[in-house]
Amino acid sequence: MSAPVITIDGPSGVGKGTISKALADALGWHYLDSGALYRILAYAAAQAGVDFADADALVALAASLQIDFTSGAQLNGKSVERFIRTEQAGEYASRVAQHPQIRSAILELQRGFLKPPGLVADGRDMGTTIFPQTPHKFYLTAAAEERAKRRYKQLKEKGLDGNIAALFRDIQQRDERDTNRADSPLRPAEDANIIDTTQLSINEVLKKVIGQLPFEVDVPLD
Ligand code: C5P
Hints:
This protein has helices spanning about 15-25, 35-50, 55-65, 80-85, 85-95, 100-105, 105-110, 125-130, 145-155, 165-180, 200-210, and strands at about 5-10, 30-35, 65-70, 75, 80, 120-125, 135-140, 195. The model has no long low-confidence stretch (mean pLDDT about 95). The strands form 2 sheets. The protein has a 5-stranded parallel sheet. It has a 3-stranded antiparallel sheet with strand order 3-4-5, covered by helices on one side. It is α/β, with parallel strands linked by helices. The chain is globular. Cytidine-5'-monophosphate binds near residues 34, 93, 123, 124 and 125.
């Protein structure tokens, strides 16, 4: 590997994004939000009227997209942040992400995010499929009820609508699809550090993660 990688995997709403971003910032490393790639692809497919079940058309579409994260998620030069962060975009993404052809089409794109001084990679299969050789693997879990509550809070903070019962149902449905798909299903790598975050604050999780790392991490923790 050209540089070190920390992988942070887990189900939706577990806080991976917040933890991964904080860690990447504290280390001064790059950050890969792999879920955003599936979200952008699903958004582009919806816009282009491509059927989520048509793997070949999705692969062709993926090859034609220009994706950039230098200032938020951008597709073909335009910000798509507000379209891809909705619950519906997450649901669409998990349908697109089921296709092995799509997963292999964006495999190298994901590995390309690894550049010095290092990468924090957030997703479902970062430790199992994309960067299996890294020794720094984490898998975050939390009870589905707690994840629905966190999602609700997150949506409110962004000024978006949410309903806890509906979020809970969506989370269960997405867990089910992500865990049961044939290619790169959601599961911890054998050598991953598993952290149950149900009762933990973001700072407590960050502290646990940092405690397992051999790197100097400069982050203010209470
Ligand atoms: O993490 P996020 O909620 O943005 O991911 C959206 C969806 O993309 C997930 O529900 C999952 O189906 C898919 N995904 C994936 N592999 C990844 C990241 C996300 O299959 N590495």
